[in-house]
Amino acid sequence: MVEAAASAIAVEAYKDGRSIFGYVTQKIDYADDFNVNFEKMTEQARMLYARRDDVEAELNKNKMKRATKECEGWIYRVKVAEQEVLKLESKYKKEIRHAWRFPRFWPRANLSKHMAKKREELKVLLEEGKLDNGVVVERPPDPVRVIYAPSTENKPSLHWAVEEILGNLRERNVKRIGLWGMVGTGKTTVMQNLNNTEEVKKMFDIVIWVSVSQAWSIEKVQDSIMQRLKLKVEAGVTAIETAQLISNELGGMRYLLLLDEVWDPFDLHEIGIPNNNKDSKVVFASRFRDLCYDMDADELVNMKRLSYGDAYKMFEEKVGRTMKNPSIIPIAQLVVRECAGLPLLIDKVAKVFRKKDNIHLWRDGLRSLQRWPSIKIQGMDEVLEFLKFCYNDLDGEDKKVCFLYGALFPEDCDIFVDYLMECWKAEGFLLSIDEFRDARDRGHNILHDLINVSLLERSATKRHVRMNKVLRNMALKISSGGPDYKLLARTCEGLKEAPKEEEWTSANRISLMDNDLCILPVVSNCTNLSTLLLQRNYNLMMIPDGFFLSMQRLRVLDLHGTAIASLPPSLSCLTDLRALYLNSCTRLTELPSSLEALVHLEVLDIRRTGILSLPIQVGCLMQMKCLRMSLSNFGTGIPMSKVISSISSLEELIIDVDPTTLWSDQVVKTITEEVSTLTRLTSLTFSFPKVECLEIFVKSSPLWKDLRFTFQFSVGICTSVKYHILDYFEYQLCKCLKYANDEGVHPVISEVLTETDVFELIDHKNISSLSDFGTVNMSKLRACSVEGCEDIICIIDGNVAPPPAFEWLERMVIKSAPSLHCIWNGPGPVPVGSLGQMTSLSFYNCPKLKKIFSNGLIEQLSKLQHLSVEECYEIEEIVIETENPRLDSRTLPSLKILVLHDLPKLRSITPDDTLIWPSLERLDIASCPSLLKLPFSGENAISLRSIDAEQSWWSTLVWQDDAIEKRLRSLCNFT
């Protein structure tokens, strides 16, 4: 035992570089200083802890700042040292308790040595605690500053905009997004919710919110960004230098810049916003659509008004407990309707009604609200001023009067754009442009500006606009204050009698449309009247003989849809009349000879009237630009009067043909020859019963191939002359051909197709594909519909179609094609560029269709947004693996809507879940019993918002992961 201890001492002495005698002597010294070393260590520790407490106190005083890296490291080392000191103290106390034991010399000496070394370490650590570089520095900006805002989660008509912008933020190529819409629609709320979204926190290093406001400047915007970034700038630094500082700071970050209330376009580079490669983005909100374009937005999101349900929910939340009263609810529903779906207005109105605690106050408040803005209501003038700013900011009186004219129509009703343009032109708002086409172009420019500032809005019905209730009230208030634009607008009120004579006398424009008027004043003093709109008063059977005597300034007269059987003699007094609408006056059997007095008449519409012959007086109207009539207006015999050909100024002609009536070839041939002689014609709508009649026009008219010429031709006998596919386009497609109930290929059809935008082929026989007409001839097609063509086996035959085919086609609808097998049939892959602009593809009732994306077609459809497959009983796979091997994961990158109905054999959408589906928002599946798996994982289809499906089918699905099923179930609308 003694020998082992001696051996250990020798080893230790050797390691320490001393002799055994020296080593033992040192151990004796350490053992003698055991208590002293402990006291010195603990004293040094107390001094260190005191310094540590001082540093932490300084940190606590500067909560807006953070500790320096040096300081953080020092505090951590002190913490470690403190733990080590505690362990040494514990050993010391244990050694003291066992001091009587023998032998304790060596452990006590070793412990004393460790305490002495620890004291030296603490001394060094205390010296480092001076922290020459300081204790604190500015905290880095938080990645997101949460902004208080009402949540949009329970308001779908607001939340969709948040989701739409999030979808765009996920797109790598989308750098700038513009959110636009009229004042009060909730743009700021959407931007605030976007700022607070958890997904945004994960996507960006920092989110910067700036409210630009009307009184903006580059310096103010820069100052907001500098404060957010916690950057300091010395006095006298220029905007250019500040921009460089901001750019340097943001250059290495993934940033999201949210610019709210942008009034004027500006260059982001002047502010200091860099274009970096870090997937940084900018979203700006504005009232003006064009501003978004001016600021180079890659995507635009149009802010709509709230749905009635969301508006009521918001109103209910803000009013509170009073809404629990059942007797209040019917009144509250009417109050909400007065707010026109504008969150700003709902907020103001709710604050007023929150103070009303009984039904009497609510009823009185509703009456006041219905009379606003003719009377003042608390808080509402602010809303009106917001709205009036957009009106006052319009450059040019023409735009202002065009806007005010919209108040003649009922609130939120669809106003046909072409009709509105004609009224504007007739009133002289379009700068006295003579040619109708030029006037329409000018009108569309004004309409664009009104929509741009949200004074008018696009309707859900294409080629229509509407004016909401609040803006209409504002327009009526503005018009009431001016001497030259007083409106009398009493629409949809169920009026059975006309307004009082004094109201007629003071008005410049009168609208009594959509009422139950039976009689009109016998005489009216309307010397200043320029527009009179009486349409759709279905019980109005007679106009007094002297009714028009004082209306010499009348320019627009609309009587369509009334029950009048004749026009009064005083019609001849309307010598300034420009537009006369008599369409759908079925009891009207003739036009009076006094029509020739209307020397300035430009527009005449007599479609669907009982008029059986076109009077010669029509040919005397030398200013006539636009004539709309029915073929029946020519009578049943051969028209010999040559009335149409005598209207030398005619630019636009529509001749409706009743599809159920068989007209003699000779009648149609004669009319076609007449129309062919018109030298100023720019637009023609006509139904040719046979292809030979179309051939007569094509060979005789020198105009139809002119770039400015537009047409809607229907060839053959079909049940409807309406172009169904046109309803899907926001813009107007101007050259349309409907071809029905014929067979084979006629050269004149191929010729007309060379100029055609829209082609609808119906019940055609003896062709196997559209390529039979020549794909070169259809190179301009933007939309195509094929219906009831029983011999078609494919749409494009790659054996005869030169590449690329249908390169501009945007929408295709295939319906009731019993022999159709595929879209593209050919020996090789689909040529690059073919169908490259396709955004919508629909199949209905194609029982033999098996392949949709054959020959690599799917790779060309990068812009496809809507795919619908219904009643196609042989479809087993949407994307067939053998036809599309090694698909890129971003295939179908733009697809937003997928509809699959009545597909009994469908087994899969795609072979697996490798596709990303980056844009898919809606999935609609019904009657697909064999489809047992969806192509989704926990990673893909992140933009998916809704799934319409049968609950019984959903319960049969097989899932890779329960978490996926749970996520998708939350999106389901079960039927």
From TrEMBL:
Domain Disease resistance protein At4g27190-like leucine-rich repeats: 814-934
Residues in Disease resistance protein winged helix domain copies: 408-475
Coiled-coil stretches: 38-128
Disease resistance R13L4/SHOC-2-like LRR domain sequence ranges: 549-695
Keyword Thylakoid: no
Residues in NB-ARC domain copies: 162-322
Entries under Pfam families matching the protein: LRR_14, LRR_RPS2, NB-ARC, WHD_DRP
GO terms for biological process, alphabetical: defense response
Keywords noted in UniProt: ATP-binding, Coiled coil, Leucine-rich repeat, Nucleotide-binding, Plant defense, Repeat
Keyword Lipoprotein (UniProt): no
Superkingdom as given in the UniProt entry: Eukaryota
A single GO molecular function term of this UniProt record: ATP binding
Protein family (similarity comment): Belongs to the disease resistance NB-LRR family.
Protein name (database record): Disease resistance protein At5g05400
Organism annotation: Rhodamnia argentea
Lineage of source species: Eukaryota, Viridiplantae, Streptophyta, Embryophyta, Tracheophyta
Gene that produces this protein: LOC115725849
